[in-house]
Amino acid sequence: MPRINLLPWREQQRTDRKKAFGVGLAAAGLGAVVLTGLAWLFFGQLIDSQQARNARLRDEIKTLDKQIEEINNLEQQKEQMIARTQIIEKLQQSRPEIVHDFDTFVRTIPDGTYLTSLTQTDQRFKLQGITQSGGRVADLMEAMEGSEWLKDPEFEGLTNKPYGLEFTVYANQRTSPADEAQAPKTGAPRKNP
Q1: What pTM did the predictor assign?
Q2: d(Cα 129, Cα 110) in Å, to the nearest integer?
Q3: How big, in percent rounded to 5, are the helix, strand and coil portions of the chain?
């Protein structure tokens, strides 16, 4: 039997096209959703791996910061040790000087003169004492001027007390006679008692 198409063929073609368009649209939508999901997963994985790298870098930076702090502490300890070593070396070098200074004081203090106080600040001595006459203080200053270990004596003054004359004299310490021989002599004017 021959087949007779009662529907117009154009109407059938439109319906077929609509179905094909709907299927294509659904396939495209499904493809877009799948691609978006894959892109989401891919970029999420990239972000996770970058965050893991960042966390590792932060841990490494913390470790390096601790090491830098330890290095700085070691540098400070090194500076302190160097400073202590220099002080000890300076004390070792100046150890014989104080012996020479006391020996010089014993030899230069004339009879009838007594020290009541002897102080040293850096390289400067302050001598306070009692004497029977101002001439003995002048003798003390002359002896200091001729000493190998003392230089630049300065007289501050005499005070009359019932037990004698109180005096104050200042003198500078020579580092060593050899060093002073090389240095130019500059004598400070001395006040007479």
Answers
A1: 0.46
A2: 12
A3: 60, 20, 20
Residue type, 132: Q
Compute the CA torsion angle 110, 111, 114, 115 (nearest 10 deg). Answer: 20
The dihedral through the CA atoms of 108, 113, 118, 124 has a sign that is negative
Rounded Cα gap, residues 89 and 74, in angstroms: 22
Residue 157 main-chain phi, psi, to 5 deg: 160, 165
CA 180 – CA 148 distance, rounded (Å): 9
The model's pLDDT over 97-109, given as tens digits with 9 standing for 90+, comes to 777 777 888 888 8
Judge contact between 150 and 169, C-beta under 8 A.
no
Which two structure tokens, joined as six digits, stand for 135?
A: 């001439």
**pLDDT tens digit sequence for 17-58:** 999 999 999 999 999 999 999 999 999 999 999 999 999 999
Q: Tally DSSP H helices, then E strands, for the chain.
A: 3, 4
The second-level CATH assignment, the architecture, of 110-182 is 2-Layer Sandwich (3.30)
Per the DSSP assignment, residues forming a β-bridge with 167 are: 129, 158
- Domain edges within the chain: 12-108, 110-182
Phi, psi for residue 183 in degrees, rounded to 5: -75, 145
